[in-house]
């Protein structure tokens, strides 16, 4: 097991520290944050998930963004549990069909997510914005989730999951100052999440890990794509799939942190979940000049949900990262715990290298 | 109902006219052909689906492409039906999980598809290649399907479904002469099919219709993407979805023929299927300068499976087009019938326009 050290102050940010964006909203979670440094500070671009205050046991209340008379507006829909025996309300995050008449599908999300910036000089004590920094637009009517930040040539490229009734896609926003945001639209159509862009051109191309979820054939696996301009992507290749060999990766696998450059190659901290939706983190080492080549992988998780703040929360048994920092040979992993808090764990780079086992080509 | 005229010689190409690529193979279908003109001839790039000769009632035999000692080789796997009560063998085209332990998934395809060129001077009498013109590679181990051909600046851009155990993706091949083929890899990762590229730049971008199939949220709907170079795609937008309003489009909807330019706008012949997998054709009219704008749609199918060669075959009740020609104000639709034959139907452009009903924006 990797000598990973959870931060003593964990969790670093919790829902009660976040002011709701509306009076009738309740912050369910602050988690899965993109990470970068800007003007000497650590910036976490936090996913904030809000639900609607609700005291009626039989009701589920659904917040969405809609355009009404040309103005983006939050609309609240109410569903009666007793009137819908055909729905499955067992997942705190979403309402599903029960799968009796066709495939199991998500019908509603119980929360609406937006992004808020948390800033820190020491990487431990954070101050989070009082109001949303990036809010979903009409085409993201079910919310925006899980941002990753890649710094390239003076600009911050933010990939994130944009959700609507048409599916969970990946969109791109570019900013230079975390004040003005330039929306570039959907770069990977539904269903595709967990997109991390490498921080520089490799050969003639930019690269991005992505995680499509095919319906009829195939699993929720990682793929890798190439781009000349960061806006348009092609040359997709299957990269790393779920596996029956290890129980912690038999459900789904996807990009986690933005890849970072090390002396041995590109280091990728990724997530994997088992069939019971228990999410862990693993690490990959990729060839410097050809990131489609996996040199080494960790056989066991480098972080798995064990602390109480990881096993219990809005959705328990989850550790999920969208970004890491490398400081003086230490990997600083910021991660969402149990889908409602932000935590930090540090690990010496040499310890991660020790855990990486060569992958035979 | 549109005044569409089925060709008297239908079906134009049937499996018995196609020589199998191996002695132990049987041609199950020749269908879903890309269409273009080259050197004064009509070229159909036909999907040829082959199965392995099999006389044992209890067995299902699966052909696949694998790389063995660096050489692409056809490998045949045999499955015993009686040993797999957990499999669903009811679909002639594929073996499915029965859905009792998790989502219903395709485990195997019963046939392996490749492409073969059929040529004709009159557009009715075709001569088909004796051997495959384009054969699946290792990364397309389950076959290549449903090609569409777009002629742009002296080259033919062929989009097609490339299938492997990782899913059904869309790949691109470029040719100038239908002899040498330049493989450009996967442009849309799994699951995404039915990609049709518009035949010219519109504004600054190329456009393509595509049909992702998201797992958790959303339906098998049409999307539209943009590209600067035909190789890399972005700016995805949801375009046209399945609908409960008409029973013929409540299952799935996807691009059909490559869009063609008419005096009124871009004309798109698309396919839609109901929940029983009955496939029909409809037509759309799109804005010349902004093909994301749908000006008009057909309320009823312009072609639906009615003739015996459309209702009966390898998979019955299917009409499916990958390409049309426009000749002297007549739309010539080449289409796959019942997943095993190629047919032709002609319709006056003015009759299609009559059927198109304005879509309120």
Task: Write up this protein.
Two copies of one chain form a homodimer. Chain A has 361 residues and is mainly beta. The first copy, chain A, has a single domain (5-358), classed as 5 Propeller (Tachylectin-2, Chain A), CATH 2.115.10. In chain A, 3% of the residues lie in helices and 52% in strands. Chain A has two helices and 27 strands. At the A-B interface, strand 13, strand 14, strand 17 and strand 18 of A face strand 13, strand 14, strand 17 and strand 18 of B.
CATH-defined superfamily of chain A: Glycosyl hydrolase domain, family 43
How many strand units of chain A? 27
Give the H and E element order of chain A: EEEEEEEEEEEEEEEEEEEEEEEHEEEHE
Number of helices of chain A: 2
Structural class estimated from helices and strands of chain A = mainly beta
Radius of gyration of chain A: 20 Å
CATH class of chain A: Mainly Beta
> So what's the oligomer here?
homodimer
Helical percent range of chain A?
under 10%
At CATH's second level, what is the architecture of chain A? 5 Propeller
- Biggest β-sheet of chain A, characterized? 6 strands, antiparallel
Q: What number is the mean pLDDT of chain A?
A: 96
- Unreliable runs of chain A: none
How many domains comprise the coordinates of chain A? 1
